[in-house]
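[Automated response] Your request has been received and processed.

Submitted sequence:
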Amino acid sequence: MRYRRLGKAGIKVSEIALGSWLTYGTVTEREIGYACVQKAYELGINHFDCANVYGSEPHAAEMFLRDALAPFSRDSYVLTSKAFWPVGTGPNDRGLSRKHLFSQVDQSLKALGTDFLDIYYCHRYDPETEVEETLDALNDLVVQGKILYGGISEWPVAKISEAVKVTEVRRLHKIRASQPVYNMLNRYIESGVLTVCEENGIGLVVFSPLGQGLLTGKYQKGQPLPQGSRATTPGVQNFITHMLNDQTLEKVATLQLLAQEMGITLSQLALAWVLRQPAISSALIGASKPEQIEENVKAVGITLSAETLQSIDSILS
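Generated structure:
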């Protein structure tokens, strides 16, 4: 495993991080989930990501992760959670208000069985709460020792820039992490988010680096959808079905041939491509089997030549 700084923060995170979205606390059997976390830790992954809404009910994935990480020293890994999405029916059971953030961080700490979170993300931008209120709340949580670093997820580039200015003017603790989607099939952060984060020392922890599983090669043009995959799982399939078109599948098939020529898997190629960006601190994977983690970790250290990167761009264009 290799480790990178989280932007300009002093903390270092593994280049591959393990997430809990759509897996732990939901469709993955508990014992298999424990085995995945154990394997990740053994392979040097020190970065475990969660959120209050992951799992079959609020905080379910956090409680799973609490039990799965129990054998390991708390100081040996980086633990995250998030808040924004609704966790109840009340008017204050959502968003990034001071009230909601304070309430949810306490519930997440209890569910995770820990005294602090290394990173606490604002899970989306909240148009109903002033950025100043949100950032003041994050700053106070840092001062209280409940979180070490504040983060954001999928914020528009203009709002990231606004947040940076607010922290400077008000002398608040800086935003240190941003968690956007990024993969070969979704490169929107290259048009601004990547630059503003790099310029301001914000480490990028990108999710869905394998394109919801599309960049594993399991989905092929003209072939039935694999049983048990996200595309066949009720409540989950909407995240990928819109991408399962002939044009995209043809690109994926060509990328898979390129990976085979290099002697690596398509997943490893896709992760190495993401990690080519120095501003990216971690690529966040999901796994329902320990073997998937073993395969993905092998992407660490793969260097893609300029010729290979040009070939990838040609395929994706």
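Summary generated for your ticket: Residues 246-262 form the longest helix (17 residues). The chain has a mean pLDDT of 93.
If you did not submit this request, please reply to this message.
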